[in-house]
């Protein structure tokens, strides 16, 4: 509690200063009682003569003034705490000794007041000063008894009484000091544990807030006690809503778990957002028997699994592509050399099959290698009012299309920040799919550009008049190597998705 002196100035803790102030307030209360009793009820001290009563009143008045001064100093001057305590104890020893002498010796009962003073000093003071206080009180009592023996007849019983009090002074002072040390140690330990607990609470709270999974604390009756931001986001839990309002399935799952506790997770839906969650219930050992609920977004878990699968597949296919490109080039070159020989229609047909499939394999390998280079992005501003007409004209010439098959509709700013080569490849894949499934009549394919809801975004739609994607295939069309066309590679839409997501993150 008491730190080491620094530049001659002691530094007491706030608890020590409070103890010192309470000690001085106690002394002031005792002095006030002594003064009032001497002033208003002098008959309370029958051993005193009228002359001694006046001395008692003067001493009580001086004592009252000194204690009032120490209280003021303790509140206004927070320095030299040991000096303040020592001065207070010395004043008490002097005044109490004089009162004992005026009151007729230790038999007056005033000697017990010194025991209380030394006990208080032992709780507030430091180390060896407590023994110093006890020694000064002992010397004062023995000096008063010796002076009384010189003035009157020698009284052995009085000296024995003074010796017992002196031993009591040391015993009380040492006991109070040992008790104070124990209290100080416990206080330091409690403060340190409080700091550690607060740090642990802050860290735990931050970890829970940053978790990707939702965390709920439910009471035994299903009321939400605590929740982290992710749980409130997943359940749209705000405004004092309960889990039954956010997800009836979650509330029912909690009821079922309470009836039959187990480790199995429940799959629940959130009507407000359409999110499917996996809920795990875990009972805690709290006094309220609260239940922890961990909420995991099934869509996020599936996306993570898909990303891991695609990463492994990408590494594998990239290695395979590098390995087969050289023999594929050799096959294509050999086929071109054989084409120069004319050996009949059957020979020509078989050779055409070989070359067509070699070309298809070459295209697949190129697409796979292009996927590995998707992160090499050089973003620039693209004015779609200029770029799209040129792109449509190039596509019309290459695909031998009538001029009115592809229709362009522009509105808004029509400015895009994108890698130009990536944008060309993405749009070519989308437009190629649209042309393949359209009727190729006038206006069968529409390129629609408009501003999005966000201020800095726009939307580009590629719309065709075909039959659309079958319901059973909609969740698979963006997976690699999935295609419904006999000559497709299944990498076009997958490439578009990866490139657009990469550009979105870069933005």
From TrEMBL:
Transmembrane segments: 25-44, 56-75, 106-124, 129-147, 159-180
PROSITE patterns, A to Z: HIS_KIN
GO molecular function terms noted in the UniProt entry: kinase activity
Pfam families the record matches: 6TM_PilS, HATPase_c, HisKA
EC number(s) per entry: 2.7.13.3
Boundaries of every Histidine kinase domain copy: 319-507
SMART domains for the chain: HATPase_c, HisKA
Gene3D superfamilies: 1.10.287.130, Histidine kinase-like ATPase, C-terminal domain
Swiss-Prot/TrEMBL keywords: Kinase, Membrane, Phosphoprotein, Transferase, Transmembrane, Transmembrane helix
Catalysed reaction, written as an equation: ATP + protein L-histidine = ADP + protein N-phospho-L-histidine
Entry-linked PANTHER family: SENSOR HISTIDINE KINASE, SENSOR PROTEIN KINASE PILS
Descriptive protein name: histidine kinase
Organism: Candidatus Accumulibacter contiguus
Classification lineage: Bacteria, Pseudomonadati, Pseudomonadota, Betaproteobacteria, Candidatus Accumulibacter
